[in-house]
Structures are given as C-alpha cells and as structure tokens.
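Changelog note: in this version the structure field was regenerated for every chain. One regenerated record is shown below for reference.
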Amino acid sequence: MTGKILIVDDESSARLALTMLLRREGFQVTETHSGDSALELCATFQPDLILLDIMMPGMNGFEVCRRIKATPETRLTPVVLITGLSATQDRIEGINAGADDFLSKPIDFSELLARARSLLRLKQFTDELESAEGVLFSLAESIEARDPYTRGHCERLADMSSRLAARLGLPEDQIKALRRAGIVHDIGKIAVPDAILLKPGPLTPQEMEIMRTHPVVGERICFPLRTFGLVLPIIRHHHERHDGSGYPDGLHGSQIPITAAILQLADVFDALTTNRPYRNASPPEVALQIMYEECARGWWNHELLDAFTAMFGKGNSIVAAKRAGQAAP
C-alpha cells in the first residue's frame, strides 16, 4: 500500500529518521517543523495521513489537529498524535481535538507501520465514498439542467429544508441528510423521458404513473451508498401527503419521516414561487396562502407549515390569521 504521509515534528532528527524509514516502505513523505507550515502543506501536499508531534513551540499538536479537523477539505484526513506523554488527560485532549490514533515515544516502527497502513486503508475507503457522492451530485445536477425552469431548485431546497430543520432543533445528522437530499431528491427522474418531464401542460394518467416512479428509482440509485442511510427515506417519501393521498407508499401523518415532510414543504414552496411552462411564479405570500389552503385539505403538516412560514418573517401574519381562524390576507 502506498500513500502520502506528512510528518510534523520540531526535532529534525526525529523527522529525518521517520522520513527515511517510511520512504523505504514506498510511501511519499513530506516533513515540516511547525504547526503553521503543516497547515499550509495540508492544502498543497494533500496528505493521506499526518504524523503530528504534540509538544512543539508555538502552535502545539492539539491545536493543529483541531484546525485540520475543522477544515472541510482535511477533516477526513487521519491524524496520529505522537507524544512522550502518557497522562490520560493528554490523550483525552487529543481525542477531543479529533485525533484518530496515538503513538508514544520512542516509536516502535513496526507498530507505526501497522497503524499507518490501517489508517491509509480507511482514508482510501472514505475517498471512494466521497467520490461516489460526487458522482451522484453531478448526476443530480445534470438532471436538473434538463429543465431550464428548475435551475437552482436543488440548492434552494437544500438551503430551505436544512434551515427549517435547524430551526426545529433536529440533530445535526438529520440536517446534513436534508442538505444532501435537497441535491439528490429528484435523481430518479433520470428514468423519466423528456417528453414527460418537460411537458408544458398537465400529464395524462399514464404519464403521471411514470412520473410517480421517480422517488423509488432515486432510492434505488442511492441505496448502495452507506453514508446515505438517513437520506434514502427523504428521497422515497418526499411526495407523500399528510392525509395518505401521496405516493409511492400512501403514508399518512406520523408515518411520514419528519425530514421528508420538511423537504416536501420546501419543494412545494419552490415550485410555486418559480416560473414554470404552464404558469408564472407566485409571490411568497400567495404561495404560502395556497399551501395553507392545501393544508386545510389534509395534504401538509400544519405545525411544520407554521414553522416554515415563520422562517420567512413576512409570513407571520399568515400564521396569525390561520391560528385565529381567519382568512389569510
């Protein structure tokens, strides 16, 4: 196994010894003496593994590790903290900083090789997962580009639905799932012919049946990606309705995952407030009023729609009128 390893240690003799031994094993190695230069090399050298000494002048290893793990481009890069310290508190601080493993000085080279190879295999696996996600996102963007009227739709859904989820206090993993689902929720439309997808008028019953397959097809496309566990129910169920009249499974009420119900509201709102071949965009207030009328038919979750409306600020009067049993202005 090969890979790029960055060694960070203020002691030149330690750096050079590790560099020589690791290069002899076939690794591509770069070394540096300080935390600042290590952060610069993370951007230019792009290591697959970082061996980081804790006790350095200036920025210590804990702080370097924290910054590496806080940067999106390097957060998945494994970091091994090297220390002459054995105190439990130092290891706890290292774990809190995001370290993936520890090595104690003096370093046993056989142990170092075993740990390095294990972490490099893990990095290779995560790189493959990120590549697969990238392919799916690119595919989703190409599907969106088929219809000029939906340009930017996925990004808007990712933004609106994740903001609403945060406002409702949902866990971070569900918020992240909504961001991903916003991009890929309609990926199943790859199986829908352009003649149906881009039709300027109402669909026939037969055409609608084909259109209604896209959530299931989308779930099937994304299913092999294990990191999409929380995304799959959103893809499958973002066309369900609160009264059970939606598709593909006719779920109703609490059977519908809250994340799917959130994305659904964002989807409906975006559809109403953007131009389509068969109608012009509605102002946000009018779109929200239409959604409350649909809510009265049993289509959407009232509490979620209230929260969604309040998120825009302007819609507060609509919420107040609805709660008072009055017609929205």
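Spot check on this record: Confidence is low (pLDDT under 50) at residues 315-329. The chain has two domains: 4-126, 146-323.
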